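FORM 7B: Structural annotation worksheet

SECTION A. Query
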Amino acid sequence: MQKIILPFFLFLSLNIFGQNIHLNSELIYQNEKSISSNNKFHFTIKPYIPKDFKNFKKPSIIPVKSKLLNKLFNYDLIKIEKNKSFLKINPIFHSLINYNQTTSSILLDNRIGLSLNSNVKNKLFLTSNFFYSNVDLSDSQTNFADSFGIIPHFGKFLNNNRNNYSYVSFSGELTYQANENIYFHLGNGKHFFGNGYRSLFLSDNSNSYPYIKATIDIWKIKYIWLVAKLNDFELFNGKQSFNFFKKATFTHYFSLNISKRINFNFFETIITNPYDIRGNKKGYEAAYFNPLIFYRPVEFYSGTADNSLMGFGLNLRLFKSLHLYSQFILDDLIISELKKSSGWWGNKFGLQAGLKAYNFLNIYGLFFRAELNIIRPYTYSHGTTVSKNAISNINYGNYHQNLAHPTGANFAEAISIIRYNKKRFSIRAKMVFAKKGYDNDSISYGGNIYNSYNLRPNNYKTSILQGEKTNMSYIDFNFSYIVNPNYNLRIELGTYKKLISNKIYKKNNTIIYFGITSRIFNETTDFF
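SECTION B. Predicted structure
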């Protein structure tokens, strides 16, 4: 028995370093609305570090006489405080019933686990999340899980019994505050760079990944250096295997509050693997670990075939709480080809533009967002490389899931969200409309970042939505009540309708869901 228990706790200890404020849209909104007019805050870097919300006010306490109900509604499950340090332990509980009206089937989604949060004299911060989940997947999610052995937004599943899947999730972060302005992080988790609902730089779409990170927050500048270890699958003779292929990203993110109302940010990353072009293991380029260097010049200087991305963002805060935001992601660009309007395939870039408003129309608690995302074909993708007699891809993905926008590339998308909160009650409506050009079995039209761009049909006349043009509409209504704000335990009732159609097929799903959940990650289905 000891041989089983000891390795388990050793493994757990390596994964209990957690995020500070979870990457959940509702939690992010609850936190941001309290400082939406703060002209010093950097809204585009998530998860937020501990000092960001020192004065954050949680939903109001419900006065009750019963000690049991008071514990349920207002307090942590376990909290220990001593000498300016504390330890909090809370449950992770999730039980949703999903009724698919289209197929008249019931899908269950259950999980249970623990969340830990500790602070040692405002110097050392430790938060962690561990849960076991058992879930029935929809048809589209089942196809993905069976093809790659992956649960969407997570990693490998443990077993599958008639489309009922079991898996475990570890995430966490250990943060050391060196001084008032510098933080060091070690963890296994996710990140999100941007002010939008989607991110064209780095999002929380894929599975959690191990990383090291440094944060500098000084004057009007916030700077992130991030090194992440990723996993994807090898291809043998063009077929998917379940052997992991190691790769890594080396990322810089720079955010500058130019004035009280203007924020500029810059993003760059390199995706690489530890093998040379002959498949021999060589390790990672030492220059990539330099936290101050610009990777694009280093890549050209070293002559590597690594994949590189860079991007720019501009955010404007108008009036008191109206935010205009934008992102431009650049994979490759030749200006001369752009001027000729030749449709050269290698001009790979994407654009985001949006607005969000807190206390919209001067109604306290009303939030509105409108967003547009357009990404050209082949963005985020890469050619294949050979290692250990297998073919692998150093695209911008992890666990066969996109690291930026979940739809990948070669699409246009419009999003609208309206939410109203009052005390512990919340009502939300969301609409997503999108068009995408799909690849086929042998030709890459630039939509699937896991298809090599070497499979493109031509070098010129490349355009957005080329390939099998497909439409998607997604409409979601959600009502929730926060049971306990300390660990985001809430009761949810909602419904969503998702329609995907093209000339060949039409899929229409309407889901009604109800249950109680302590949301940690975003687990969206509002994409192709």
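SECTION C. Observations
The helical segments are 2-13, 25-32, 67-74, 139-148, 295-302, 335-340. The two ends are 45 Å apart (CA to CA).

SECTION D. Sign-off
Analyst initials: ____
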